[in-house]
Amino acid sequence: MAAYLPILILLVLAFLFAAVSFAASxxxxxxxxxxxxxxxxxxxxxxxxxxxxxxxxxxFYLVAIIFIIFDIEVVFLxxxxxxxxxxxxxxxxxxxxxxxxxxxxxxxxxxxxxxxWGPSKRLVDASPARTSSSTIARIGADRVRRVEPTTAxxxxxxxx
Length: 160
Prior knowledge:
Layout (H helix, E strand, L loop, with lengths): L4 H24 L7 H4 L18 H25 L1 H28 L20 H8 L21
């Protein structure tokens, strides 16, 4: 039990640090009160004509994940290549498992459209042109109201 005492002390200190940080931020943090200086345009003074985009597209994050995957792969493959002859068949098997995991992650990201930047092209079945009869068939003949042509009374200057 004595071997776990430093870990317990570290966990208690981490919890205390987090609790004190949240309490201090609640007490000391400035309150949000908008002023004309706070709502004014930042830096150059030019009022923006459009609102900035609020979110990045998901593809941006998927490309970032691909970059991290291959960056980590290089970090792990370089030391393996340095001691390749000492590892023998164990090293080959381990790097094969690692490469399979990286390739699986890459296939998953490509399958989710990480490298597809243009608009998606989809084939759409050609639908028949809409006509009055197709609209009546679609909404039901009982809901269609018939409009009878009426004759307008003859006004002055018009033949009756």
